[in-house]
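Standup notes, protein team

Yesterday: finished cleaning the Planktomarina temperata RCA23 set.
Today: Acetyl-CoA synthase-like protein structure.
Blockers: none.

Input for Acetyl-CoA synthase-like protein:
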Amino acid sequence: MLDLGRSFLASVARDPNAVALVDGDLQLTYAEWLPRVAALADGLHRVGLKKGDRLVTALQNTADAATLHWACQFTGVVIVPINWRVTPDELDFVLDDAEGTALVFDASSEDAVKGSLRAAGMPWISVEANCKDAIDIAELYQAQADAMPVAGPDDLSLMFYTSGTTAKPKGVPRRHQAERAAALAHVAQNLMPQGERTLGVMPLYHTMGVRSLLAVMLLGGRFVCLPRFDVKTALRLIEDHAISSLYLVPTLYHDMLEHEDFVTTDISSVRRLGFAGASMTDGLLRRLNVAFKPDLFVNHYGSSEVYTFSINQKASLKQGSAGRAGLNQHLRIVTVGSGDPRAEVSVGQEGEIIATLAGDEAFEGYWRRPESDAKALRDGWYFTGDLGRVDSDGDLFVTGRVDDMIISGGENVSPVEVESCLSLLPSVSECAVVGLPDERWGKVVTAFVRRSGPLTADEIDSHCRNSGLAGYKRPRRIIFVNDLPKSPVGKLLRRVLAAGKYNPETTDASAVEK
């Protein structure tokens, strides 16, 4: 079985003259990139890092970040990529929890590094940060080194940290074989051809970003770096590099469509669209399908722990469906709260989605979190915490998180279903549905709506009544807002709205009881 380092060598041998990496004016072929990867791998050794050590990185998507990822795959150093927006306290937690040996950062995360107590005393490597206390990464490239990997398929490749909500983030260690299997599944499930070109905008601390990087390498393709998402720059790169596939969260697609440059950009090279990280509303699906006319429109449902749960390769034809289990996966829907993988529910009935841990893409457990393992890992199955149902065709619909479910007057209401209904209104730019405390109902279904044109609460209510949405699911309160809270990778943060933290459009008429 190939590890990732040897997979890289195979791609270099297969397509030495293909452009592999683009970052601004820098373009490297595979033959040109390999010596830089090898030199950086040697540089990590010279800093004192050895196989099995944890290297914590807080970097934007640049050529150096991509090269560092591959250098770690060659050396057996376990890369621990984290959000470059990290705070000093968050950085201290990861450095302690992961037992970090060294730290790599750029200007975007320099303040957090300097404010970290745990970072003091360990080697620092800076990427264009001009920090006198750090080794400049340029110094680590100064070597002529052998490119032979020392890591094997059973060695750890990286450790993601899940975004914490009510608790501290959890480490998700993943082996070379699982990472490679996930990349191969991504290639197959997205029907990606040799020489695929993709926009490297999803961050390399996120499974979507890493998957894009690995997948194009396996195909001798091109990874075009975009350090920080900017719609104007993204559209220019799509046109200039004839990007053939996009793999983004729904928020970024939405922002592209809304930008004034979209209608004048040549997007004809984009033949494959993929999205993950959050559900996509029916309205946005329709708009994207009309705008891009893609050959393939893929809804990928998965996680950091188990890359692929399910795939819908015809997302625009069966809107809202997450399709069927991926190539390396087996799914079940079981009774919520049962903790029993045998407690399968009937077709059409809602329950918790669980995924087999026997699949090639799966992790083996959280980093030193036995209590989390006990909660999520049962009898060879991963309990996702997601709600879903399977229709009569055998297709999966993800209806929300167990924790997001609204219980109003004793009835269960899925926020995703209501949001998809609201998204079909032309003047609804974005929306989010949560349950807010109510003396009578326990929780009242509340819609937070960002308008793109004239729209009243009465019009929203009328639309919901006429759409076939069950009466108990209709929003009883509608709040017009200027924006919606999102995570750094574009996930909607319903918990922030539920906590009362939002920016109302007005203070006098934004909240309307229905």
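Follow-up from PR in the comments: The mean pLDDT is 93.
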